[in-house]
Amino acid sequence: MDPSGVAAQTQKSPWGSVGPAAPACSLTEVMSEQLARQLDEENAFPALSDPAVEPLRSEEAPDTASDLMLAQMLQMQFDREFDDQLRREEKKFNGDSKVSISFENYRMVHPYEDSDSSEDEVDWQDTRLDPYRADKPQTTPRRGFSGKGKNITTKHDEDTCGRKNTARMDNFAPEVHVGDGLGMDLKLSNQVFNSLKQHCYSEQRRSARLHEKKEHSTAEQAVDPRTRLLMYKMVNAGVLENINGCISTGKESVVFHADGGSLEEQPVPEEVVLKVFKTTLNEFKNRDRYIKDDYRFKDRFSKLNPRKVIRLWAEKEMHNLSRMKKAGIPCPDVVLLKKHILVMSFIGKEHVPAPKLKDVTLGSEEMKEAYQQVLQLMQQLYQDCSLVHADLSEYNMLWHQGKVWLIDVSQSVEPTHPHGLEFLFRDCRNVSTFFQKRGVSEAMSVYDLFNTVTGLNIPVGAEDEALFMAEIVALEKRNEDHIQKRGKKTFLVTSEDGGPPLEPDSDD
Q: Chain centroid to CA 59: how far?
């Protein structure tokens, strides 16, 4: 035998012993069904109906017979995949930055809802490291410093105080957003910390003032908790059946429509209005000009605080309406006065208020008739009632049942008021301007209308308004001096004007 051949047979493989090669099979054998059946038998899996596998199946997978349960499981799986993607995006977005942005608010599954064991059901924020909390309690030595030589550190050390000030920011009010300084060594100087502390204290006081103002004011729709309580009491007492809604708003009050009930003293109309005077003084700041110099309320006004002046303002309108009603002037009937709420009869029909004179469309003859009525009402108001409207215009006159009705007389004053004639001249200007624009040829000029209403004969001359106003101011001055010499005192308005009953202020 050849020696080289023997060496080749006895040579071993460097990769170890080589097993016998698998017998080659043809393509026909691979495609045969017998071979496929043999492979199935060698790698057979237990059947799902096997009783030995059934308990394992029931423990590992929940019941999916219900479509709702299956949908909830799919939704939970989708939410978890979404949260995983969100965490990856967050990690990619933040990178190695010291200031990180968290997407936790956008997670679909709560951290402890996503956990598999009850041991993990803890608040994830509790596991974070607090950079301001020392590993060991650090106490300041009694002598006030620590260390020796060049390494002495006192309690006034800048870094130590800065870290303490940063930690003290956690004691600020919850509404003060101090941010999150995790992972950052923040140091606040004493000056900055004291400024922040003072700012937070000022903001707390300002917030408390705004809250108190909101609770005790009626600036917005005039219904604060106390006003709402008064309205509920009227309904419970039977004075009102129900309150329907707001029909008018103004700078001094808000008007609500209501269905009338009953009173022992007098009948209540089927439809009434509640005029709620606003208790804030920011919208109508010149109230004092109309009530401070009114001789009927002068002494009482000087003894009241600004909020109680609003109640006096409502009482003033009640007495003015009662005086006008006695003179036969078309105006609302007063039903009841409770603090700053005045209940009056409703001018209109079936919840629809009468239109203002500026909104109504009248023919030429009806407009002339309206002008004559207004002229007569101004004369009656001045001569019979001894009042000046002081805010008469097309906005405060209603057209109802072919007549002109006067409303909003809370600012009305007597002619003896130090500015009474000036208010009357302004009313005459408003009336004359409105009817002249509506094409009423009979409308007099403001000067002639003033003389017609007052009965005075102030010379018009060249119709110089400055000279005319100078004459009016001189008359007011002489009238005021005459009243002061007579020593005229404030008289009780109830003795002359009468009026509906006043509810006692038991809630004060």
A: 55
